[in-house]
């Protein structure tokens, strides 16, 4: 079933192909200029730091619903090994096997395609089975440090968490801006809180996964108008699932990643951040959310930190 | 062969057990106070960002010398998969298997033990084969964001890179402070540049590994006196290898990690940073170097960024 | 809670420590003599071959109940890669990550311990975190080829599959011998069919796992009296779960593996074999069930074949 | 560079597409009939068993030359874990990550393609990035049990091992038949010994890998004429490397796997077998070489056993 006309109309309006040159592989991350970073650093006032990553462990958020996206398998390869003889210094060492998008992560721009195309018109078949995306891999993103803004939609609506069938709309985002007392601007990284991750944190990963509130198909235009650099939230699929338009699965992914070239973050734990923002009375902060530079990868674990 | 008397004498002088309470698992990271972070944020002036991680790929720095510490094996589990039918949005997905200390990484405090003890007196056998360090795992570190200081020992000595048998001494560190025009202070993260990583970057990972310049057994006391929060460098083993004192393998590891509770970073690419510091004429910056919160792990990949 | 007196009494009666020498690591596999193999080969009459392994795939029998024992994650590392230029021969290549006991497998003799001891009195702490069992690893087993005998307990009882709380007793095994018209003898490999694996084959892996029929704590003595070389069945846990004696979890494992030194096989698909045995009217065959020689491993995948 | 005319001429002569039906995915394994197996079982006379697999361990035969084909990484996930409380039965458990063709293995028929085709005309692009070969995967092979014949080319030529540049020709195979006193016949599995694996066994895996003696481009026709079911040898690449015809890399692979549909085995340790055959004075035996049924895989570890 081809994508509906509505999708293609939005796609035209948010498309950024060529905006930063033919060869660009960073998309909206280009909007994070030196000035943006300086201004972001100036938001630091209390020195408080809030980490936003879930623990990486076998009992992670994955349920097996997404084939191959396995939770971290952490194994020891050495335990107090005295490599240099008895009574010497002993070392312990370990390894991990995991889906790169298994926990708190960034989607790389190559994570989805439609019509055989990736962001900036690259052919989708440039992703090969030899372990590599030739274009738009996460290692191309470069540093992700900017002003972060919490758009606390759940708090703005006075609910603990959004209903399962709640599509977060531009109106929701603006209500959250109003709560925050700030306006999202060019180069910002928007963190959209639904409260859905509480389901995982309280032990029900299946309820966390599906159905789930998430971003509406109407949000890419809003983010495009504000020229945000990236958006992350506290759900497994980022966008509302099942989708608003029947049959249009992953439409937001396609608009954000392919058309706009805007990285998405998922499974970010925004619960503590929500508390701190409310306490500090401010919703903007310096955000460092560095991708691990896996070469040719479609996504990457990230351990983001909000610095107040 | 038991550890030499010299080791035990230094150990007494740098020991931090109990300093932050019986239950502490963060060691010198406790020195990164809110004030330290605020001051670090104020160093940001140009907004320039310099990433310090090596690419994560199969052709990484590991040579097989350290059993089980495998380079990243990045594999695809889905390539342009149209999960929802033909002509829909297609997704690509991938996984990795790797040693947690295979690339640019932080050592967790549980990475080494001696005399059956970990940092803060925890029993070494609290690391079990069930994939977990019960104490001092990297997930306990919390956010690592502070002032970073580049101690560019190679540049201070006017060499491209230090000789293979060069042990970086306190005098070297002070010469680098003088070059930088700053004094390392409590809560700083010191990045010590030897230039050794050029060997890997130019294609000879065996020469990179061993023999290698690195930190002298005399440096832990210097770092202890300055109360630094953490130290990272651009070598595989961190300390000089083979060691200065015959038979005392990993003595610096034992002093830093076990006695002081001070995290070490290895395989950090400080080449670009050295250029930028020289250009900007300043060697202090805001450093974000967030550990991935692998539960019970002895180390973690890190994608550090210096923000000027 | 220490193991009950009943356990220790049986243990004394079935213990084989020292029987094949102080240094033995093969246990009852020593009972497979050249004569046994010759006789087994003479059972081949029709040339029919029945494979007994489950497919190795991500949708395997593991449910996450056993920490770290992950189903096979099969990933591609090359797909039609033309390494030598365009229009040359292209290769595809792949990797797997899996628990060694995730699918159809043999338990190695080092898989369980009690009272700090492995089979033949080896210290349990000879299994280290460095990826190795120093003693009794599966690579020590050598070739496993012998006469196989299907003890079709379900068929002998005229049921499709045994009830969840059915402990397979010596009386059940003798009824199955009677159905088969043969007597189990020294060096045989006994395959005990409960029918439980149908639960997995029809899509309910949770029901397959637990609760489950399985071997009674009374069977080790029976197998010891017959001097069988190994026993395999079609359940996840081999023995009845939950156990017959409250608190005595894995008692059969401890008797078979530690006391007798007799390898156990689990997750063997005996459904097709049951059909063929009934059709052929004979329940003995040549069985080849070669362990993959993973060095120092506690278990191994196996692809057994019954040859009629 | 397209494949040379010579290749295409041989390809025509050995092609088996359609021979066992349009839908066939087993190729020459179809030649192993019940009669063949019965006759093979009748060769068993002494009951002696000779295993042919290399140990599976991190220090395996792979050197990194073939991207992604990693040696086994064996890690513990539980060591003497008392899951059910103190003084109960303790379990140890482990996992592996490995290239499916890393050690002693069978190539699946889908391992190579040319001109966009797999065996029996299947499209090469039926191998997807989603971890699956839709056609000709190793799980389709079924049981591999037949008469094995050692063609001991090295012994027939009175050398310890063949020279690095020795291409094993049909004349060599016939000399080995003469030494063996038997003629290879339909359904046999031919094991061709070069002695090259001694290089690995004595510690030089690089010398083992390349250059290496191996099968000549002239051998597929010989095997086709004899209607053998499969061929394995004791080298890394199976065929001579570098190839006899400049630029024709993996030509033998393409003829055997794609045109004939004949599985190839590599890294088989035939040293002990050579000794036993010479001692027993016979070169034919019952061979069990069961593929592990990895679904959609291009190859599989195998632990073959020769039964005399």
TrEMBL record, chains A, B, C, D:
It comes from the Bacteria. GO terms for biological process: L-tryptophan catabolic process to kynurenine. Signal peptide: none annotated. GO terms for molecular function: arylformamidase activity. SUPFAM superfamilies: Putative cyclase. PANTHER family: CYCLASE (PTHR34861:SF10), PTHR34861. This is Cyclase. It comes from Streptomyces cinnamoneus (Streptoverticillium cinnamoneum).
């Amino acid at each position: 079933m081809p994508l509906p006309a509505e999708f293609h109309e939005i796609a035209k309006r948010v498309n950024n192909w060529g905006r930063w040159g033919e060869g660009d592989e960073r998309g909206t991350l280009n909007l994070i200029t030196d000035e943006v970073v300086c201004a972001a650093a100036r938001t630091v006032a209390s020195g408080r730091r809030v980490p936003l990553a879930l623990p990486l462990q076998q009992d992670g958020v994955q349920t097996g619903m997404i084939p191959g996206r396995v939770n971290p398998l952490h194994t020891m390869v050495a335990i107090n090994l005295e490599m240099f003889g008895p009574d010497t210094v002993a070392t312990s060492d370990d390894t991990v096997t995991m889906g790169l998008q298994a926990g708190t992560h960034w989607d790389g721009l190559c994570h989805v395609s439609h019509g055989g195309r990736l962001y900036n018109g690259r052919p989708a078949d440039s992703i090969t089975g030899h372990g590599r995306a030739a274009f738009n891999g996460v290692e191309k993103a470069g540093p992700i440090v900017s002003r972060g803004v919490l758009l606390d939609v759940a708090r703005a609506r006075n609910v603990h968490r959004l209903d399962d069938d709640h599509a977060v709309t531009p109106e929701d985002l603006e209500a959250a801006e109003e709560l925050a007392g700030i306006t999202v601007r060019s180069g910002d990284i928007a963190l959209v809180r639904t409260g859905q991750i509480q389901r995982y944190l309280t032990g029900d990963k299946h309820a966390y996964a599906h159905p789930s509130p998430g971003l509406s198909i109407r949000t890419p235009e809003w983010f495009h108008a504000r020229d945000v650099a990236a958006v992350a939230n506290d759900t497994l699929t980022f966008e509302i699932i099942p989708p608003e338009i029947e049959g249009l699965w992953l439409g937001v992914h396609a608009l954000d990643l392919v058309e706009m070239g805007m990285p998405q973050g998922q499974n970010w734990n925004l619960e503590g951040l929500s508390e701190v923002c409310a306490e500090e009375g401010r919703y903007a902060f310096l955000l460092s959310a560095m991708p691990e530079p896996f070469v040719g990868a479609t996504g990457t674990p990230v351990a983001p930190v909000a610095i107040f």
